[in-house]
Amino acid sequence: MNIVSFFAGAGGLDLGFEQAGFNVVWANEYDKEIWETYEKNHKNTKLDRRSIVNIKEEEVPECDGIIGGPPCQSWSEAGALRGINDKRGQLFFDFIRILEAKQPKFFLAENVSGMLLPRHKDALQNIKEMFRNAGYELSFQLLNSSDYNVPQDRKRVFFIGIRKDLGFKFEFPTITFPKITLEEAIGDLQEGVLPALEYNKTNGSNCTIPNHEYMIGNFSTIFMSRNRVRSWDEQSFTIQAGGRHAPIHPQAPKMKFIEQNKRVFVPGKEHLYRRLSIRECARIQTFPDNFIFHYDKVAAGYKMIGNAVPVNLAKFLAENIKTQLETKTVNQTKKQKEIVEAI
């Protein structure tokens, strides 16, 4: 089945769908820092570099599905919480505009859990109604990536819609998987890591393991207000889009509590506290090692990875969408055949 992708980023969602057997024929991404990474890792996909607001419906290829994660900053609990009142939040409307015009068999849209906050209740209800009015049976659920072969606590909401004429509603699977630990995910990456160069520029080809470099610089008071270390036998904190807020490597002990909203690195162990590298973050987001991120400054690498949907979770949802579409289609064909034979 052919699908198109909006707000594609580096393509974590796209890669998961590809691994599930879908063909991503066309993708859209407006951020120029991401273009090289996307195109070099998705060589069979045509990348449209415009803003979605400038894309006409007829310019989007015919497809069986539309996927994407409209920008989440305006909904984020860590952000300004402006939601649909922010221009970025309003990009949901353009996603729905194109969905309604193209009428593919299904769609998937992903966003942060912050949109579930009470202050966004009316806006969220409006978005749900717009999806339904566009012609889709809507399923909606909050998922934690750590339940789906992703070594990370990462809660995100998913909208999945099936075109109404297909006669069924997507059912989120109830199956979950054992937790994957940081030891299992990145335990083999303890050697060869490099600090970024001055001004947090990349080491480039000097990294013996591609992208195995970490952001340097001070830690903010906000960062130091909470423990940022997870142990080897735990799952990672959420991988964020900002490198300065990347979790600390599990080689370090848990940060020492001083008072409310203030912690410090354990005295005498300060040398163990470094941010996770870009490659370690990519592993935690379940990107394969042959997926190479291209950037001049390491901040761009962290941004691409932190904004992505974990590949394993994307693959799991894609497989379930594919199975349900195929199963329902076979059942409908069988029923139609039985009706014809009965006549």
Structure description:
Helix 1 (12-19) packs across helix 8 (311-342). This protein is α/β, with parallel strands linked by helices and 343 residues long. It has helices at residues 12-19, 35-41, 91-102, 121-133, 182-186, 278-284, 298-306, 311-342, and strands at residues 2-6, 23-28, 46-48, 65-68, 106-112, 136-144, 155-163, 194-195, 213-214, 256-259, 262-264. Mean pLDDT is 92; it is low at 76-84. The protein is globular, with a radius of gyration of 21 Å. The strands form three sheets. A seven-stranded mixed β-sheet has the order 3-2-1-4-5-7-6, sandwiched between helices. It has two domains: 2-175 and 313-340, Vaccinia Virus protein VP39 (Rossmann fold); 182-306, DNA Methylase, Chain A, domain 2, CATH 3.90.120.10.
Number of strands: 11
Q: Identify the CATH class of the largest domain.
A: Alpha Beta
As laid out across the biggest beta sheet, the strand order is: 3-2-1-4-5-7-6
- Provide the CATH topology of the largest domain: Rossmann fold
Q: What is the structural class?
A: alpha/beta
Number of helices: 8
The CATH superfamily of the largest domain bears the name Vaccinia Virus protein VP39
How many angstroms does the end-to-end distance come to? 33 Å
Percent range for β-strand residues: 15-25%
On the 0 to 100 scale, the average pLDDT is 92
Q: Spans of 5+ residues with little confidence (pLDDT < 50)? A: 76-84
- By CATH, the architecture of the largest domain is named 3-Layer(aba) Sandwich
List the domain count as a whole number.
Answer: 2
GO biological process, one term: DNA restriction-modification system
EC number: 2.1.1.37
Catalytic activity: a 2'-deoxycytidine in DNA + S-adenosyl-L-methionine = a 5-methyl-2'-deoxycytidine in DNA + S-adenosyl-L-homocysteine + H(+)
Protein name: Cytosine-specific methyltransferase
